[in-house]
Design goal:
D-Maltodextrin-Binding Protein, domain 2; about 400 residues; alpha/beta; 17 helices; 2 domains; eight-stranded mixed β-sheet
Length: about 400
């Protein structure tokens, strides 16, 4: 989940439906399950649960919560008996929630892990324990304006050459449009230059191995300076992607949350991987959304039944795909005709296969600000990439101890 989108969803929920209950009625129900989710997912969860609620006589109550406050609310309300049975959210919440004792582990007896794409299960694991049932996957990719670039660049050198040609002709203002200072969207470029956030080991993330200024990135830091200086990377773009939508940028990096806007724009486009830089893969973050069981659930057995019989089914995940435009986490759902028919999602999925699940450990919260500030400083010309990312690395090392 992007930092920008988190803010937008928070604002919507706060202004409109911070605490609105949406209930699927059942006949003479003596059992119920209470689900917290944000405004964006609420209708989908409610509608996709309706048939099960009717057939089982179990009431499914969906309560809309402020996305930005949901984690903290679960941690404080759960122990008081005021929380939900299930909370819906991204996998990078797991570390904080599990470490605080707010989540109940999901056992192999409750779901068939083999039925899910392996990376989605790993995303919801914290210290080797599974804490969520995944239902969709998202990642950014390269959107290509085919009028400016008839083919997708196979290498970063090709991308740079296309930009240089368009710049010389005066037909483009930016080469690769990415929101200024947003490390999430810049991650493919960052990883292609040899950077990373935390190292990974057999048991998970190594918080003492911080790669914001790795040796490989340090050697390539001047390349990032050059990308901003030449105008290849945008210095002032925001989440509206004005240059790309106005036909003044051949490429932009964004995700499925912008797909509807792109489709309505009338621009002839394609979706492709952000190309490798000098052979180094441009890896995006992989975001996985799922259903997490509260340790303080009042209706734990019913909630487990819901996770097993509703969330862990192809029908539910395909229904959520149709509503939310995200690739299902369930293997059989990915083979559904509705999913297979979408060339755009095939492209997202193909690129996402090379991605890295966003770290779900609590220490990740300490990374975003300094990392984003480094990109901003370079874009503004206030620091070289070497200086900016070394400072970010030093700050994060101090913060995580």
């Amino acid at each position: 989940m992007t930092r920008k989108r988190l803010g937008v969803l928070s604002a919507i929920a706060t202004a409109a439906l911070v605490m609105t209950g949406l209930t699927v009625p059942s006949q003479a129900s003596t059992k119920s399950v209470l689900i917290w989710t944000d405004q964006q997912r609420s209708t989908g969860v409610r509608d996709a649960s309706a048939a099960w609620a009717k057939s089982t006589g179990i009431t499914v109550t969906v309560v809309v919560k402020d996305f930005g406050k949901m984690r903290d609310d679960l941690i404080t309300a759960g122990p008081k008996g005021l929380g939900p049975d299930i909370v819906v959210g991204p996998h990078d919440w797991v570390g904080q929630l599990a470490a605080s004792g707010a989540l109940q582990p999901i056992t192999s007896a409750q779901i068939n892990r083999a039925a899910f794409v392996e990376a989605t299960i790993k995303a919801f694991q914290y210290k080797g324990t599974l804490y969520g049932v995944p239902y969709n996957v998202e990642n950014v990719a390269l959107f290509v304006n085919k009028k400016l670039s008839p083919t997708a660049p196979a290498t970063f050198a090709e991308l740079e050459a296309t930009w240089a040609k368009l710049k010389a002709a005066g037909t483009a203002n930016v080469g690769l449009e990415i929101p200024k200072g947003d490390p999430y969207h810049h991650t493919p470029v960052f990883t292609a230059l040899g950077g990373y956030v935390f190292g990974q080991g057999p048991t998970g993330w190594r918080v003492n191995d911080i790669g914001l200024y790795s040796k490989e990135f340090a050697a390539n830091a001047s390349k990032l300076d050059g990308m901003f200086a030449s105008g290849l990377l945008s210095k002032s773009s925001n989440y509206d992607f004005v240059q790309w939508f106005n036909g003044k940028a051949p490429f932009m990096v964004t995700g499925p949350w912008n797909l509807e806007k792109v489709q309505k724009s009338g621009i002839d486009y394609m979706i492709a991987p952000v190309p490798a830089y000098a052979g180094k893969t441009a890896q995006p973050w992989i975001g996985v959304n799922g259903f997490m069981l509260s340790k303080f659930a009042k209706n734990k057995l019913t909630a487990q039944k819901y996770l097993r019989e509703v969330v862990s089914t192809s029908d539910f995940q395909v229904a959520m795909f149709k509503i939310g435009n995200r690739m299902p986490a369930f293997k059989s759902a990915q083979s559904d005709p509705a999913v297979v028919a979408s060339k755009d999602f095939a492209a997202f999925g193909a690129y996402g296969a090379s991605g890295i699940p966003m770290p779900n450990i609590p220490q990740m919260d300490k990374v975003w600000s300094d990392w984003g500030n480094a990109f901003t400083a370079v874009a503004d010309g206030k620091a070289t990439a070497a200086a900016a990312f070394k400072l970010a690395s030093d700050n994060v090392k101090k913060a995580v101890g």
